[in-house]
Amino acid sequence: MGVYLAYPFCAQKCTFCNFASGVFSRELERSYLEALRTELARFEWSWRPATLYLGGGTPSRIEPAALESLLAAAPAYPWVEATLEATPGSVTPQRARLWRRLGINRVSLGVQSFVAREISRTGRRHTAETVAAEVAILRAAGILNFNLDLIAGLPSQTPASWRESLAWVERLEAPHVSVYMLEIDEDSRLGREILHRGPRYGAPDALPEEQVADLYEAAVEWLEAAGVRRYEIANFARPGWESRHNLKYWRLEPYAGFGADAHSFDGRLRRRNAESPAEYTHLVLRGASPCVESVPARIEEERFFLGLRLREGFRPTPEERTCFAPPIRRFLEEGLLESEGDLLRLTARGVMLSNEVFQEFVNL
Q1: How confident is the model at residue 271 (pLDDT cuts 50, 70, 90)?
Q2: Could you tell me which of 108, 30, 3 has the C-alpha nearest to residue 281?
């Protein structure tokens, strides 16, 4: 079982970000942390979480006393794996030592790029040297497990600049890397500019989909040659360094989410909290449940579009093979799926067309 804590507060909103996070008042931030501790205290713990994930937003900016109070409300310290998301530029020796003392043994750095022009257009202010220095700080504090986030398809990105970012990953001997293809939608400032042909944030230099796909495939090849193997569509790790918490999502293992827009899954129901930090805080502090949606999980469908995200694939039950026989047969014939005994998984081509594959199993 795992625990997810949502901290949607940032110093600035990145241009590419389409998450439910942003810049809010310090007053709301203090009230929100009180609400988050309250929601944790009210939860009826019939199990002990093995993993904890503190995501954002920018949890690395939480003040030491507030972070210690928050983590004290979550049971089962020390956790097998406890991850904190951090923005480069926010990691200091003092903070890293505190994190380690509080049980944080994994840090996910939202690097996105190691190339100065690409970084500046996202709204971030770090440099490649900043990231290298902070990786050294984490290691000195005893946090050897860290992830580097990268985005393929940032405006003006080229094969050469992409190789520069990947070379930094290899140079830093990162045990884990996440590679996301840029999402273009109305929920991010950059996405809106691209969709409406605006001039800001480098939108005129946005890459065609096929070039973004080429960059992703280049990352797969480069990282695997460096010993960082893809184990999920967007996630790569050296052997033994896979994210134990995130694997729970793809393997349909239960987890409990706390905070604004946090999701939970108990094996039967999927629940979602209020998205707005203000609404979430108001509900919790007046004694109401922050849950705004609770629906039965559609396990048969979810096993396909979550299990197929994993490189290892998954084993459909005989009933599932019968129910989904037409799309399975078609995707096998088209070379998007491959079968090994009773195991089913995406091919390399299937990974690139995974959304189309998943949609077929959702629509049946």
Answers
A1: very high
A2: 30
pTM score, two decimals? 0.93
pLDDT value at position 240?
Answer: 96
Q: Where would I find the beta strands (DSSP E) of the chain?
A: 2-7, 51-56, 81-86, 106-112, 145-152, 176-181, 229-232, 235-237, 255-258, 263-265, 269-273, 291-296, 337-340, 343-346
Q: Which residue has the tokens 């129901």?
A: 269
For residues 282, 56, 78, 28, the Cα torsion angle rounded to the nearest 10 degrees is -30
Percentage, residues of the chain above pLDDT 90: 73
- pLDDT at 206 (0 to 100): 78
Domains annotated on the chain, with CATH = 2-249 (3.20.20.70), 299-363 (1.10.10)
Q: Which is nearest to 2 in space by CA: 238, 264, 190, 185?
A: 264
Count of beta carbons in the 10 Å neighbourhood of residue 18: 16
Q: How many CA atoms lie within 13 A of 129 on its CB side?
A: 0
Number of residues in the chain: 364
Q: Is-contact 18 187, C-beta < 8 A?
A: yes
CB 298 within 8 A of CB 309: no
